Amino acid sequence: MSNAGKTLFISDLHLDADHPAITRCFLNFLQKASGCDALYILGDFFEVWVGDDDSSSLTETVANALFTLAANGTRIFLMHGNRDFLLGPDYASRCGATLLAEPAIVDCYGQKVLLLHGDSLCTRDIEYMKFRKMVRSERWQNDFLERSLVERHMIAQQARQQSREKSGMKASDIMDVTPQEVLDLLQEKQVNLMIHGHTHRPAVHTIRLQEPINGRDEAVRIVLGSWDTKGWALEFTANGYDLKYFPH
Ligand SMILES: [Mn+2]
Q1: Tens digit of pLDDT for each residue in 201-210?
Q2: How many A from CA of 216 to the centre of ligand 1?
Q3: Domain layout of the chain by residue ranges
Q4: Rounded Cα gap, residues 42 and 79, in angstroms
Q5: Does domain 7-247 have CATH number 3.40.50.1390?
Q6: CB-based contacts of 195: which residues, under 8 Å, 6+ apart?
Q7: What spacing in Å lies between the alpha carbon of 109 and ligand 1's midpoint?
Q8: How close is the Cα of 176 to the center of ligand 1, in Å?
Q9: pLDDT digits over 230-241, tens only?
Q10: 234 alpha carbon to ligand 1 midpoint, in Å?
Q11: Over the stretch 33-57, which tens digit does the pLDDT of each residue have?
């Protein structure tokens, strides 16, 4: 089976040494993806990332597998999520991948597609948006990366703990994208198709536009799934797209 003419989009694998089934599922997925045109990983690829210098058997196994895919001709793109926003150019190059800043507009078989992780659309979570602004600043990141690995892991652990406690108390619509934010971004970028992850609510949404974009009064928002209980991938070809899932 040839994968030429196919592009794949995935996100939210949350790879973690404590969940080897997800890593196995991903390595399997890569073998089947061999020869595809491109692979886009739209953030939260790893559950936690405290710096490219924190290498482990997990990070090296994953990098080697991606590098093999790249060596066979697949272009690989990595976008930051809210967990792995410190993933840097060193690790990306070990994967044979290119880091892609969000939001990105790419051409997929003649169609303009807007890509992002998705957390920036969840603007009703005001507390999180403040946290995001802080940790995405160069100053915070430089300060963090100067700390020892032990310290960095402790800080990341605390942040995850706090986020878990707070998420449990937030209304579920606060944790989802703000519909107006989606519309504004589509208008600003003049794109009819958006792909993101983050919310763990896989779906293909058709959106009615009040103001047409590229002469069309509809847009589509595709949400990728998280890999916690099964794998998810969007397959994109010149003939259309298909959001698929598969068992671990
Ligand atoms: Mn996320």
Answers
A1: 999 999 999 9
A2: 30
A3: 7-247
A4: 5
A5: no
A6: 9, 40, 42, 113, 114, 115, 221, 222, 224, 234
A7: 27
A8: 11
A9: 999 999 999 999
A10: 17
A11: 999 999 999 999 999 999 999 999 9
